[in-house]
Specification:
heterodimer; A: mainly beta; 7-stranded mixed β-sheet; 11 strands; globular; B: 5-stranded antiparallel β-sheet
Chain lengths: 114, 111
């Protein structure tokens, strides 16, 4: 398995509170991604990073922010959690330019906003 | 806007049958089409991927068929086994970055 660790694995939080999810990689891959998985929607890209301090928005970025101060860490912050952000969040990594590049996914974080 | 549409949403097949999952995409700039397999409580894992310069790719019991003119691709699982029961996602991207996923198919293989 690719060296990706997501923390926490499970979290229950109250509406209106800030929440930060962490993704840590040991593969030195340049690209890191945050996806959310919801029934009927597959996985949708929230934000991604293509290098330290280089980030960009994905398809469903409203209400989320990210930061990447080191190659190995990519943080996802829900600024003020809402019930619509109850989901399973996956971090992924990839390294561009390789012949058989693929995205490796972490184990996921199940977030419940009550 | 759903750029990658996947069907069916769920599929039940007897052991030894050949489940087929279909995907259609809209963006003609896409040049990388992977399939991911996900077991409960786990993250998705790459199963097989194809680029548009070929019409078919096989890896073991898994085959991708690709129709560039129709903007469609499909996954076939030969001699399916109960251990293949999982959720399958198709995806597409340009340059293998920023994958856009289909909605997923929950596959059940009955013994």
């Amino acid at each position: 398995d690719a060296g990706i660790t997501q923390s926490p694995r499970h979290k229950v939080t109250e509406t209106g509170t800030p929440v930060t999810l962490r993704c840590h990689q040991t593969e030195n891959h340049r690209y890191m991604y945050w996806y959310r998985q919801d029934p009927g929607h597959g996985l949708r890209l929230i934000h991604y990073s293509y290098g330290v301090k280089d980030t960009d928005k994905g398809e469903v970025s409203d209400g989320y922010s990210v930061s990447r101060s080191k190659t190995e860490d990519f943080l996802l912050t829900l600024e003020s959690a809402t019930s619509s952000q109850t989901s399973v969040y996956f971090c992924a990594i990839s390294e561009p330019g390789q012949p058989n590049t693929e995205a490796f996914f972490g184990q996921g974080t199940r977030l419940t906003v009550v | 806007q759903q750029q990658v549409k996947q069907s069916p949403q769920s599929l039940i097949v007897q052991k030894g049958g050949i489940p087929i999952i279909n995907c259609a995409y809209e963006n003609t700039a896409f040049d990388y089409f992977p399939w991911y397999q996900q077991f409960p409580g786990k993250g998705p894992a790459l199963l097989i991927a194809i680029r548009p310069d070929v019409s078919e790719k096989k890896e073991g019991r898994f085959t991708i068929s690709f129709n560039k003119s129709a903007k469609q691709f499909s996954l076939h699982i030969m001699d399916s086994q109960p251990g293949d029961s999982a959720t399958y996602f198709c995806a597409a991207s340009k340059g293998a970055q920023k994958l856009v996923f289909g909605q997923g198919t929950r596959l059940t293989i009955n013994p």
